[in-house]
Amino acid sequence: MSEARFSNYEGMFLFPQAMSARLDEAIEHVNMLLGRVGGELISMQKWGERPLAYAIDSHRRGIYILTYFKCDRSKLVDLERDCNLSETLLRALVTRADHLTIAEMEAFDQREDLHVEAKLRAEQGEGAAAPKAAPAAAAPAAAAPAAPAPVAVESVEAPAEAASESPTATAVADEADAAKDES
């Protein structure tokens, strides 16, 4: 029997945007996929929620989960098969991570943040089932930050006026006038 040869890998898992409300399920799904092939998770982080370049199964946005893990090379075929058969996962990409050390991989670990975000999203999902009066009360608070926008427009115009009267602009204009007088 051949000896298991473990290597470090980087895995990008793409979930539909609907999984953002059930982020804990997405995390558990990745853990289950890696566990089935005997992979050892080094780090995991949410890479972001982004629009897709093209629709995949009528999904236009997705959640990317980036992982670093250690796995037996011969089990990668099984991992790829499990990812392709998964109804939860849209796409997966696994590459060798020889360019990073274990310490660098561990520095990317945000599992605690992911669990906190999953818990918050689950609570927000439960709050959405509550009566509609609560969001109406929150709407005026959300509208309040919009008031400073005119101030920002005025402050943008002020530096443009000041730039024309700045010492540097005046010195350049004086040098140009002096050059014309010498000619």
Topology:
Elements: E1 6-16, H1 23-36, E2 40-56, E3 59-72, H2 76-85, E4 91-96, H3 102-107, H4 111-128, H5 133-143, H6 149-164, H7 167-182
Antiparallel strand pairs: 1-3, 1-4, 2-3
Description of the structure:
The protein is α+β, with helices and mostly antiparallel strands. It has two domains: 6-128, Ribosomal protein S6/Translation elongation factor EF1B (Alpha-Beta Plaits); 149-182. Helices cover 50% and strands 26% of the residues. It contains seven helices and four strands, in the order E-H-E-E-H-E-H-H-H-H-H. The chain has helices spanning 23-36, 76-85, 102-107, 111-128, 133-143, 149-164, 167-182; strands at 6-16, 40-56, 59-72, 91-96. The protein has a four-stranded antiparallel β-sheet. A hairpin with a 2-residue loop joins strand 2 (40-56) and strand 3. It is globular, with a radius of gyration of 27 Å. The termini are far apart. The model is unreliable at 130-172 (pLDDT under 50).
**What is the CATH superfamily classification of the largest domain?**
Ribosomal protein S6/Translation elongation factor EF1B
Mean pLDDT: 78
Our count of helices gives: 7
CATH fold-level assignment of the largest domain = Alpha-Beta Plaits
The strand count comes to 4
Find the structural class using helix and strand composition: alpha+beta
Given as residue ranges, the uncertain stretches (5+ residues, pLDDT < 50) are 130-172
Strand content: 25-35%
Most strands sheet: 4 strands, antiparallel
Q: State the end-to-end distance.
A: 92 Å
Strand order, largest beta sheet: 2-3-1-4
The CATH architecture name of the largest domain reads 2-Layer Sandwich
Rounded to the nearest angstrom, the radius of gyration is 27 Å
